[in-house]
Amino acid sequence: AFNGVVRNDAKARDFVAMFLGAIVLAAAKQPMPRALEAIVLPGLEAEQPSIKRLVLPSATEARAYLSLLISDLLTSENFYFFPIEAAAKTFAEMNKSPARRDIQQALDNLREQPLPTCASDYGPVRNARRFEPPSDERIAQLWKRRYKMIESIFEYGKKPNRRG
Question: What is the pTM of this model?
Fold first, then answer.
């Protein structure tokens, strides 16, 4: 799958639609290769494209994930600041040693800084930054439910996800 962007760097949000599209196809039992290679083609000044790999789940796993994701987004309370950029900050913090890890501070910094912009700045909720970040406990739940299957979108400078 390919996605072209104007800026010179790939971001996690550039891979979401490609990964979710592949998971939907897996859920529908459509013929697919075992793994998806998602490629973001950045602007002309970038040195190379960014490639992320997702080993596709079984149809049963894909359906369970999509069902949980949709249920989570439509029926649970979502009165917190946790756009995909916050998930990326969380991933970066989770990969630090426990002594240096401070997820709440990282999310507060993101929420309070006008730049870089967040996907939620243009979303259906006006001024989403007015909401507080979720607690560390809630973040752990959100991470497991929403991002664990697609966490390779957040990996930079690491080997692609070789799940399975």
Answer: 0.85
